[in-house]
Amino acid sequence: MIRIAARTLRHHMSGFIVSFVALFLGAVIVIGSGGLLETGIHNAAPPHRLAAAPIVVTGDQRYKYTQKDLVFPERLRIDAELTEKIAKVPGVAAAVQDMSFPAALVKGGKVTGHGWSSARLSPYQLTDGTAPTEDGQIVLGKALADRTGLTTGERIQLLVHGTQKGYQVSGLAAGPDDGGDDESDVFLADAEAARVADRVGTTDNIGVFPASGANTQEVASAIRAVLDGSPVTVLTGDTRGRAEDPDVVADGSDLIPLAAAFGGLSAMVTVFVVAGTLGLSIQQRQREMALLRTIGSTPGQLRRLILGETLFLAVVATGLATIPGPRFGRWLLDAFADAGVVPGSIAYRAGSVPVIVGVGTALLTAIGSAYIAAQAAARTRPIEALAEATLQRRWFSAFRLIVGLLCMAGGAALAWGTAGSAGPDAAGVATPAAMVWAAAFGLLGPVVVRAMVAVLRRPVGMVSGLAGQLAAHNARARTARLASAVMPVMLASGLAVGLIYMQTTQSEGAERAFDENLRADAVVTSASGGLPLDLVDTVRRQPGVAAASAQIPTTGYIEPDEPMRPGEGEDAGPQPTELSMQGVTPQGLDRTTAYHAASGSLTALSGDSVALPATYAKDRKLGDLVPMRLGDGTQVKLKLVATVEGRRGYETALVPASVLVGHTDGALVPQIMVTASAGTDRARLVASLAKLAALQPGLRVSDTDALKAAQAEADDTQAWMAYLVLGVVVGYATLSLINTQVLATTERRKEFMLQRLIGATRCQVLQMMAVEASLVALAGMVLGLLVAGATLVPLSMSVLGTALPGGSPWILVVVLAAAAALTLTTTLLAAGAVLRGRPGDMAGIKD
Predict the structure, then answer these.
(1) Per-residue pLDDT tens for 449-474?
(2) Three-state DSSP class for 236?
(3) 377-384: long-range contacts (C-beta < 8 A, 24 or more apart)?
(4) How confident is the model at residue 793 (pLDDT cuts 50, 70, 90)?
(5) Minimal CA–CA distance to 745: which of 10, 11, 9, 15?
């Protein structure tokens, strides 16, 4: 039977090609997403700026002793005195402090400042001039000098930490690869860098150089022992890049759920597509199977024939998929990094596991689908085989009904969970819900298709005449075949509508939350990365200003009342509550934002105090001390002075800016919100505030349209990621749609030629196929809309409070029109290609 299976491949080439493409692309997608998942688990970040130091000591960004992993969003700086302590560890040749801070050249744009000691860690080497040994001297990275045209001896103005100071370029330095990866490095003397950046006594990292002949790992272990109890981590190898970019720790872990969601979605689509394609391919050969049964083939031989064909095809397809699969995963990582979804310093790290999983998924799906089809063929008695092939009486099974109903129940449970989720989190539940609903309607598809055919039979016949009646009869007699053709239409249209509107709904929810909270007319920012807090009072006193308030966004945590103790690992101890936090100045807060007190008073936000969202303060009363952690891990106890309302999922805790400003990366105010007084328009307000540039170098003033544009840009980043996933998954389903329609049409060559022999014209056959394709498209779009509707209604209720999703109705029109056009076009093109032959050739009649 195995030899027969191999020989049959060339006699059913179209079916095998379609199945091969489905298996190959499905395996590529699953292998690539699996590689992305493994990359997230490794979270490797090879160093660049710190590459010369074999060991790097940096702050530990992890929130310890919690049930689930939490990472502080602001950099944890370490005590500079640890440098001497590390230098005394046996095997250490030198310990070098590293510090970075945002700055800007008045004529040259944003730069990154460092102490000169940091140059040793890349290493940077002087190519011209001397090192900065005195105050007022600066060394420029050669790439920056080339870009700006600056040379040794010139004077420049540097904006840093809200001040402006003049420097003389004492030298130029080039790093690895002619300037390294950063084209904006500048270096000051160590003492001056710490002073101007307000970092005296702290440092970002400590680079360690082991002594000649010392083992790096042994030295690292010795350093860990000496620093035990300090809030630091010792990094070697590929993990050193986490010290350069703490976002690798904070955001790199996001790659795991992102890859898992994408991989799970892709795997489920692969299962549906491969199962449907193989099932249809084998279904088209029912007459051949029936003949084999009538001439004496046993059920076991028939099963081995089908399984042998499928195994041969699957092994070749998945084997070839192992070549582009990892490259596809690397491309996905680069695309996510370019969009800012994950840090760009994360390196692609994937071994054999994703390949094994991807190949295994495709093989198991193929073998499982073939086995189910083979069982159906093998159970048929020889005397009924030909009748079964002709009439297709078994169009549905009890097992399929039970599994379909179970999937319906699962989809309903996920819909309930989606509706009950907070707005920003609802999509995480809605995405798997879409696939469960797709599985449910796919399994129950024959019932829906049969009902639709029964309803549409007479109208179709009346509108399209004999061709329509014949198409309706074909659909009724071949319900299972029609349902197999409907599945990819449902997947493509349902997932496209569901995923696109899912993203537009999330974006509209975020936009509404932003707009509802915005009351200011102008925003004040700085080219140097931030503004001093006392500038808020200066802005408030300007002509035409009615109110001004600082805004310092970050993330904080409400600590549980039960203390967290060492030794309580994941899933063991209490879990802090993570929430958005905004540092504000209470004067003018009610006129620059929409925050209002549900209880207490926002004017009481002074000193160590907090206004919590009402949903987070249910078990507390005004005056209670709330144990919290700020974004850099600092423990504080803040007095509850008010509660505030907010859109569900977008709630924010308010803290005095004076409490928060020293615990962020910039240690400055990113923006000051300003409201104009009565009779002052926005243009006059902006012009009035612009005069402050003489007092505050680098100050920038714009209207709130700039804030809205920044918010829209952030939404576009998330949308781009969603559309990338959509493009891959729906693109695969769309390709399956095309392949399936081609397969379902070309395999009916004998039927078409028989119709031609009994007098049907080529045009009549094409008319019949056009009606059948319309039925397939209609059934697929109806099922797709059911999938999308069951997914989007609870999502929209959670995010927008309405049953209708956000987004243009033209999205729906375009998706459905594309699905109908693809189905009709591929069917007619395939039928036209088949009908090019002469009817007599198929019947064996020669001229």
Answers:
(1) 777 777 776 776 666 676 667 777 77
(2) strand
(3) 377/282, 377/286, 377/289, 377/293, 377/302, 377/303, 377/306, 378/299, 378/300, 378/302, 378/303, 379/299, 380/289, 380/290, 380/293, 381/293, 382/293, 382/294, 382/296
(4) very high
(5) 15
